[in-house]
Each structure stands twice: as structure tokens, then as C-alpha cells.
Amino acid sequence: MNISGNTQRSLGPGVQYLLDYLKRMQSDNPTFFYAIQDDNDEQCSGNMFWTDATSRTNYSYFGDTVRVDTSYRADRSKIPFISFTGINHHAQPVLFGCALLLNESENSFVWLLQTWLQAMSGHSPVSITIDPDRLVQKAVAQVLPEARHRFCRWNIFRQTHEKLANVCQANPTFDLEFKKCVNEADTVEEFESCWATLLDKYYLMGNEWLQSLYSIRDQWVPVYLRDVFFGELSTVDSNDAISLFFDGFFGATITTIQLLIKQYEKAVSSWHERELKADFDTYHTTPVLRTPSPTEKQAANLYTKTIFMKFQGELVETLANPATIVDDSGTFITYRVAKFGEDHKAHTVRFNAFEMKAKCSCRMFDFSGVICRHVLSVFRAKNVFTLPSEYVLKRWTRNAKTGGEGSVPESASELPSQYGESSVVRHDNLRQEAMKYVEEGAKSIHVYNMAMNALQEASKRVAAVKSKNSGVTQGTSVANGGNLGTHAIENQSATCLSKEEKEKKIRELSGELEQTNQKCEVYRAILLALFRDMEDQKLKLSVKVQNARLTLKE
Fold first, then answer.
1. Residue 442: is its pLDDT beyond 90?
2. 307, 391 in Cβ contact below 8 A?
3. Calpha distance 220→100 (Å, rounded)
4. What is the rounded CA–CA span in Å between residue 87 and residue 234?
5. Closest Cα to residue 89, out of 399, 366, 388?
6. Pairing of strands 33-36, 7-8
7. Which among 37, 46, 67, 189 is most buried, taking Cβ atoms within 10 Å?
8. How far is C-alpha 369 from the chain's CA centre?
9. What distance lies between CA 406 and its chain's CA centroid?
10. Is residue 441 within 8 Å of residue 448, measured between CB atoms?
11. Helix-, strand-, coil-residue percentages of the chain, each rounded to 5
12. Spatial separation of the C-alpha atoms in residues 509 and 487, rounded to whole Å
């Protein structure tokens, strides 16, 4: 089942196009990082990796689990494009970096992983998901020995459907039963029994493909991996959320580097807008509570909207999953938790009353980072109505992207370290203030009109600042609307500076310019989102007013 073998590809002039693109991106943004293996100024024939400041910052928040997508290797007609992705606090895919691999050798994959790790400040993920590929597997074992790695389950499902096409065609239910056996087994024993039954039912005991899958079952079947965090909220979803970043953007039509870069930029922009919308929905959509439990109210204020809905589903299920004491001797109390009528699927929860900690045999919290219904049922039985802090992962909360740990990594960057942190903090502060502004502005038509006028004026000022800065040439940048006269004097005195001092000054001014441009982009994105929302609010208010008038007339 492994893809193997060294391959050297050639993409003609497209490679030079990509190299020029990467150089231009770094020139425009000093925090943009790229690297080339076997770099030659005259001709680029090696492998290339790149990542931007946003990806590197996101990794500092959500770099606990990573997906390395090398699925192109199964189709030799595809451009050799590799992506590093993760999952953010809204359970959306987030990008950590990309690569073009022309020389597909074991050394190339080792170089790629080492370069990516360097760009991420050397912080290894807790877990990593890869395709069933011998070269990639060996490189991961060498570069990321501490990370738990697994094979992409959905890739294996796809390959199984292709290799057992005749079986699937003759038995339409096989594909569904196969996935159910893998995804829904609660225990190793249940999986083993289900697997044997499936093979016996469809006369596949001697099938080599299924035998090869079974021999590596601990590297792709969820029940064997639940002791490690993979950020997977559901094992029965129709697809692998962490791999969806470029879905809908890349397809069979991507045959040139030029088109690939165009679609890459579209994907990055699209997911940025989706995250902003998810932020807005989280802060301005009041969750409907389904129980009187204080725990649910606490979770609603802590988690993002998507994660709260997952938690809420588990909490509601406690009503149908009572906890029964089976052992109350010593420090730990052991509970048996099972759904009514499903005693054969019971789980065991060990509860420490002194430390207020519980451990469930389902290992859901370890695997997904969201507390399970079984532990919640025990908490309910013990009158624990506040979630202990250790059961709330910050990466799933509204405040996931706050704090100093989110600064842009400094490796391969000459900018001061405080730049990344302050940029993130500014972004969060602006967003929080903007959200409050929308709430006030939507209360009435009069307040709405006043708020809209203020926003439009602010938008003009932001555009003016950005226009002024974008027109300044390199080496004479004006940052944050600074005084032109002051910078002119500084530039006159710069002629007396040494070459090294001039280069340092250029880097500093370029950094200031980038900060201002990035701040303007944040303003622009927030203002656009606010405009759209306030227009929606205006429409809703207009409908309410019209309905009120009709009611009065009647």
C-alpha cells in the first residue's frame, strides 16, 4: 500500500515563475519565509518550501496536530504540491506551509520536514497525520520522532474503494459497513470482532489489501489512537476536516504553477474570511441552552460556537447515560456509564474526589480535547457543576489566539520578536472593540445611521494612511502616518551611515511599513464584515417596523 521510489520532476518555466513569486512575497513582507534545496541563482531545479507570518503565528496556537498532505504522489499527472495544515478553534482547517517537491527522494522529504520545523521555531507537534507512503513515513520518524504519527484514514478509505471496486459494486453495503467497523468501534475487542465478521461475511479472509491494512491497524484505526490528541471531533464525519483547506480550489484543472498560485491565494483569502465570520458568529450569536445546568452556561461563555455545540451534544447525552458506582473503595471511585438499553457498550470512569479529576475508558478527551458524556455524567452525579480548568483546552476557546505564545517565530526573520505578538494583540483588540460597536449600532435605525457614518469615515482614514505608506519607496518608509519632515532629515543623515547601518535602517523601516499595512488590512477586513452585518441588521429592523405598522393598522 506504500508509495515509494525516488523521482525527479520537471515543470519547465513554471518553477522560475514560482521562485519569482516567492522572492516578490518576501520583498513585500519580510516575515514571509521560503527556502530552496540545492538553490542555484542561475537555475532553480530543487525543492521549494514557503510559509507566511499568519501561518507561523497560527502554528503557535494550533500546532499541536498537523496534517502533511502528499496525496499528489498517487497521481503522477498532478503538480507535486504538498501542504502542512492544522485545525483552528472553530474546527476549520488552517494552513502552516506549502511546498513544491521536484526531487522526491528520502533526503528531500527529510529536508522538507526539517525546513518546515525550522520555520515553526523548532516546536514539534503532538501528533502528525500522513499518507501511507514509505518515504514520508521514514522522514517523519527521523525528523519528528517525538510526534505520534498516523496514516490518513480517509485516504485509506479511498484506496480501499478503488482496490475492492468489484466487491463494492457487487455488495453496495460493504463500503458503509467497512467504514462503520473502523469509525464506530468503542474498544479494540469490538473492532477485532467486527473486522473478522466483515471479512467472513464477504469472503475476504485472504484478501492481501485488507491483510496489509490489518497489519498496520494501530496506525490508522481510531480506537488504537485515542490516547493522543488529534483534534478530531468526530470519527464518523464524511471527510477529514484538517485536510480540507484546498478542497474546491485545487482539482484536475490545476496543470500549471501560475494557476496553482492563483488558487492558492484564493484559498488563503477565503479561509481568512471564514474565520472572521466564525469569530463574529461566536461573539454575536447567543447559544440556545438545552439544559438548566450551570456547566452548559459556563461552556457557552468559554468555547467558540462550533466547539460549544459539540460539548452541548455530550452534555445532553448525560440524561440518557446514567452513572452507576461499581467500586467505592480507596481514593478513586469507579463508575459504569452506559446508555439505556446498551449495557454492552458501557464505559468505565475513574473519579478522584480529592482532585476532582476523572478518566474515561473512551479516551475522548485525550483524542479530541472535548470532555465526554461519560465523565460529564459522573460530574453530574457528584454535583460538580463547574468544569475544572484542566478539562477546557485553550485551543478550543474564544481566547485561543490571545497571549504572548502567539508571536511570529523569529527563525529566518530579522524583525524584532515583539512585532508578531503586538500584531496579534492589536488584531484581537480591534476585533473585540468592533464587535461591541456592532451591538450598539444595531439597536435602532437612528443609532445604526450614526454608527454607519462613523465607520465610513474611519474606512476613509484607514485607506488614506495605507495609500500614503504604499507610495513610499524602500529605504524611506513612513510608518503609522509619521512626520515626513522627520524622515527626510533622517534620510539625509543616512548618507553618512555605513552600509551595514543602512541595511539595518532599511529593515527597520520595512518592518514598520509592514506593520502599518497589516494593521490596515485588519481594519479593512473588520470594517467590511461590520458593513455587511449592519446592512443585515438594518433590513431586519425595517421588516420589524413594517410589521409593527401593519399590526397597528389592523
1. no
2. no
3. 26
4. 13
5. 399
6. unpaired
7. 67
8. 14
9. 14
10. yes
11. 55, 10, 30
12. 10
Give the tens place of pLDDT for each residue, 277-335: 999 999 988 899 999 999 999 999 999 999 999 999 999 999 999 999 999 988 899 99
What is the C-alpha to C-alpha distance for residues 18 and 100, in angstroms, rounded to an integer?
A: 9
Q: What is the rounded distance in angstroms from the CA atom of residue 320 to the CA atom of residue 343?
A: 12
CA nearest neighbour of 12 among 76, 59, 79, 105: 79
As a whole number of angstroms, the distance between CA 161 and CA 180 comes to: 14
Give 475-490 as a DSSP string: TS---TT--HHHHHHH
**Is residue 349 within 8 Å of 359, Cβ to Cβ?**
yes
CA distances from 189 to 62, 181, 372 (A): 33, 12, 21
Query: What's the pLDDT tens digit per position in 380-409?
Result: 999 999 999 999 999 999 999 986 444 333
**Length of the chain, in residues:** 554
Q: How many angstroms separate the CA atoms of 85 and 170, rounded?
A: 37
Does pTM top 0.85 for this prediction? no
Q: How far apart, in whole angstroms, are the C-alpha atoms of residue 492 and residue 513?
A: 19
DSSP secondary-structure letter at 253?
T
Q: Do residues 79 and 250 make contact, with C-beta atoms less than 8 angstroms apart? A: no
Kindly state the cell numbers that stand for 469.
Answer: 505608506
